[in-house]
Amino acid sequence: MSPAAATAPLTLALSKGRIFEETLPLLEAAGVHVTESPESSRKLILPTSDPGLRLIIVRASDVPTYVQYGAADFGIAGKDVLFEHAAQHPGGLYQPIDLNIAKCRLCVAVRQGFDYQAAVSQGSRLRVATKYVQAAREHFARKGVYVDLIKLYGSMELAPLVGLADAIVDLVSTGGTLKANNLVEVEEIVDISSRLIVNQASLKTRAADLQPLLDAFERASADK
Ligand code: PRT
Ligand code: MG
């Protein structure tokens, strides 16, 4: 390895918003301060108080891609994102720690008044809109329910209101968004939190630099 590569800072991939906010206390627990916020700064590469660690800010669903290809040594991503990513790119990511942050649940929801249980027990074919196609496909296959999956990239809550779908599969945390759109949760699929993911080559070549951070993250997330 060249001397430059040996001293290159470790790169942690994060998405802005809740994952960035909830990662800050974990970094603090490792003695790392982040002085710039991705909300106010337009920079996509953020320095930290540790010259050996920098952050890159990417879309939540792109975090596993940056880590898998080694453009980031490690990253933080929701299990929802990891599940969809794994279906396209099996293997390749080491997922050592459940950080217990950005918690929510993946659910099936329908318009108020739509009798989901009756539709399921009658064996009706359901139109389900979701961003989480893999997780939804597995869930309904396990239940033996026939579904037509409609892939959306956001605002799933709208689909049942305008007749695009009978049901949605989406993340819920407070339930406020469902309520505001006259939707009700009818089934929980799985609890979601975010995991630390590590590039497999970095795990070997950068172990001495990575390990203290992984240990600090593990201790801080165990307290949650
Ligand atoms: O927003 P963008 O399209 O860039 O990507 P993203 O939505 O994947 O990113 P972001 O930052 O919104 O979410 C990052 C991760 O946070 C997700 O991958 C989840 O693992 C986790 N997380 C935790 C959530 C929520 N809670 C959550 N409530 N992700 C999304 N939501 C959305 C949900 O989809 C719904 O629209 O919030 C709405 C429901 O919230 P409540 O509180 O009204 O129930
Ligand atoms: Mg979002």
Automatic annotation (TrEMBL):
Pathway participation: Amino-acid biosynthesis; L-histidine biosynthesis; L-histidine from 5-phospho-alpha-D-ribose 1-diphosphate: step 1/9
Keywords tagged on the record: Amino-acid biosynthesis, ATP-binding, Cytoplasm, Glycosyltransferase, Histidine biosynthesis, Nucleotide-binding, Transferase
Enzyme class: transferase
Domain ATP phosphoribosyltransferase catalytic: 59-217
One Pfam family from the record: HisG
Domain of life: Bacteria
GO molecular function: ATP binding; ATP phosphoribosyltransferase activity
CDD domains: PBP2_HisGs
BP GO terms, sorted: L-histidine biosynthetic process
Location within or outside the cell: Cytoplasm
PROSITE patterns xref list: ATP_P_PHORIBOSYLTR (PS01316)
Reactions accelerated catalytically: 1-(5-phospho-beta-D-ribosyl)-ATP + diphosphate = 5-phospho-alpha-D-ribose 1-diphosphate + ATP
Domain notes: Lacks the C-terminal regulatory region which is replaced by HisZ.
Family according to the record: Belongs to the ATP phosphoribosyltransferase family. Short subfamily.
HAMAP family: HisG_Short
Assembly and oligomerization: Heteromultimer composed of HisG and HisZ subunits.
Protein's name according to its UniProt entry: ATP phosphoribosyltransferase
Species this protein is from: Pusillimonas minor
Upper lineage: Bacteria, Pseudomonadati, Pseudomonadota, Betaproteobacteria, Burkholderiales
